[in-house]
Amino acid sequence: MVNKIAGDNLAKRKGAGRPKGSKNKTTATAKSIIEEAAQGLGGATRLLAWAKEAPENERAFWTNIFPKLMPLQVNGPGDEGEHIHKIVSEVVYPKG
Question: Which range, 15-19, 63-67, 82-86, is most confident?
Answer without folding.
Answer: 63-67
